[in-house]
Amino acid sequence: MFSRQVKQFLKRSSSTLWPYLQRNYGAPSRQAKVTNDFVSSLKSIVGDKNVSTADAVREQHGHDESHHEIGLPDVVVFAESVQHVSEVSKLCNDNVVSLIPFGSGTGLEGGVNALEGGVCLDVTKMDEIIEVNAEDFDCTVRPGVMRIGLNNYLRDTGLFFPIDPGADASVCGMCATSASGTNAVRYGTMRENVLNLEVVLPDGRVIDTAGKGRRTKKTSAGYNLTNLFVGSEGTLGTITKATVRLYGVPEKTISAVCHFNSVQEAVDTVVQVLQCGIPMAKLEFLDDVAIEAFNKFSKFDMTVAQSLFLEFHGPALGLEDQFNTVKELIDMNNGFGLKTAIEADERNKLWKARHEMVWACCSLIPGSKPYSTDVCVPISHLPDVIVKTKEMIKEANVIGPIVGHVGDGNFHVFFPVDHADTETFKKVYDISHRMALLAMDRNGTCTGEHGIGMGKRDLLIRELGEEGVEAMRQVKKTFDPNGIMNPGKVFC
Ligand SMILES: Cc1cc2c(cc1C)N(C[C@H](O)[C@H](O)[C@H](O)COP(=O)(O)OP(=O)(O)OC[C@H]1O[C@@H](n3cnc4c(N)ncnc43)[C@H](O)[C@@H]1O)c1[nH]c(=O)[nH]c(=O)c1N2
Ligand SMILES: CC(=O)C(=O)O
Ligand SMILES: [Mn+2]
């Protein structure tokens, strides 16, 4: 099932996969230089109340929601202004102390874990919604603004911010990981939706990636600095302001669920729906194991089969036609059990449960925690890659529910794992790596939306090649010559 090249890599690496993991968790390679004097200097910048070396605070900031082992910062600093961020960055840079921006800690690849100690810079107190330009369909927010809070604020404007990772993440954290979610098939990912960023560079300089105050839908003015920082995972600078696109709340929304006997039939339906040019808002796949978890955790009684969750957004006029065309395609592919949810309460219940799938999957093994994977392939390869992933899961005799933003060719396995069960943990780690290799072998990527973090650094080299990663390292050196920004992330 793998190409010759990948088979060779697997042969070489099967015995070294575990050491990779060990290396990820290895001892800090640099001595952190957070002395008492340094902490006093931090306090003189942000005030005593905004600096903490308490164990509980460091613990809370030393991990995200992933399976990756905690990495404690030496000190946590709470910034209240851009000036705070700038002065703290300069202090860290002058003293070559690591600086890790912290959004809301919902990442899934260990992005905030402090691998070399240092300063965790929590920006949640900077939570101002600076402006909403309703007629221009954009808004500008500080890094403490969360996506759900933003949408609550926008409620009366008739607009919404559509990017929806399952968690209630910070909008700037979402910029940093290039997040997406269930709406990406219609509205795009963060990459397509960020118009401008204010970034504090490690030496304390503040830049606006598209120029101060600019918020146009398009520009040909030089390099795309905005998209350099989208997905930079805190390794280039701290994002202190983001201008993002907004959309009109659709006049009518229809959600629907249907089932299939095979992954192929479900994905064929998705491809045909897209080929018909139907502007679907959500096209999500849950396999039979995921549906079991969904039923158990969220008290649904859905048919346990390969399933599609769909959503249509649009003017009332014509939306029924779109729905009927999709219904025909579902029938043509032997889909069954089509049910709709039209009322807001019913729809919200369905999508809340979908957004909680990471936790739902843990209901399949009491006491387990999630180990999530994330690959993306051109959609034509999706059935093959999902079926082969299911085979790997079966062969390893582990539980692995599959959930996918199938309209984008993106899917996850949320393995419920008891972390003390080293044998299962190793198996899951191995499948996760093999999935990424398989996806890359099919012209895909090792991460569609969760990022590289600390978990996929070796895979990034396979994906881009040494030369590609070296070019990225050169960019990093230009912005961060002392290597203080989130060290050990993205690059080995
Ligand atoms: C239940 C559930 C469900 C989902 C997800 C998580 C969970 C727990 N996620 C993952 C997660 O929500 C996503 O990665 C967010 O973008 C992380 O935002 P945080 O604010 O939590 O960043 P967090 O604090 O976790 O940081 C993530 C990375 O960004 C950096 N960073 C944060 N704020 C920064 C700033 N202001 N400036 C510079 N760097 C900064 C950090 O240093 C770190 O490297 C996800 N994702 C997704 O794409 N699609 C999905 O469907 C889901 N679904
Ligand atoms: C966790 C995640 O990415 C999802 O639920 O889609
Ligand atoms: Mn996802």
Observed structural traits:
single chain, 492 residues, alpha+beta, Uridine Diphospho-n-acetylenolpyruvylglucosamine Reductase, domain 2, Uridine Diphospho-n-acetylenolpyruvylglucosamine Reductase, domain 3, 8-stranded antiparallel β-sheet, 5-stranded antiparallel β-sheet, 19 strands, binds dihydroflavine-adenine dinucleotide, binds pyruvic acid, binds manganese (II) ion, FAD-bd_PCMH_sub2, EC 1.1.2.4, flavoprotein, Vanillyl_alc_oxidase_C-sub2
What does this structure look like?
It is an enzyme of class 1 (oxidoreductase). The protein is an alpha+beta fold and about 500 residues long. The protein has four domains: about 1-30, no CATH class; about 30-125, Uridine Diphospho-n-acetylenolpyruvylglucosamine Reductase, domain 2, CATH 3.30.43; about 130-250, Uridine Diphospho-n-acetylenolpyruvylglucosamine Reductase, domain 3; about 250-440, FAD-linked oxidases, C-terminal domain (Vanillyl-alcohol Oxidase, Chain A, domain 3, 3-Layer(aba) Sandwich). It is built from 18 helices and 19 strands. The protein has helices at about 5-15, 15-25, 35-45, 55-60, 80-95, 145-155, 170-175, 185, 190-195, 225-230, 265-275, 290-300, 315-330, 345-355, 355-360, 380-395, 420-440, 455-480, and strands spanning about 50, 75-80, 100, 120, 130-135, 140, 160, 195-200, 205-210, 240-245, 245-250, 250-260, 280-285, 305-315, 335-340, 370, 375, 400-405, 410-415. β8 (about 195-200) and β9 (about 205-210) form a beta hairpin. α3 runs antiparallel to α5. The radius of gyration is 23 Å and the shape is globular. The two termini are about 30 Å apart. Mean pLDDT is about 95; it is low at about 5-30. Manganese (II) ion (MN) binds near residues 181 and 412.
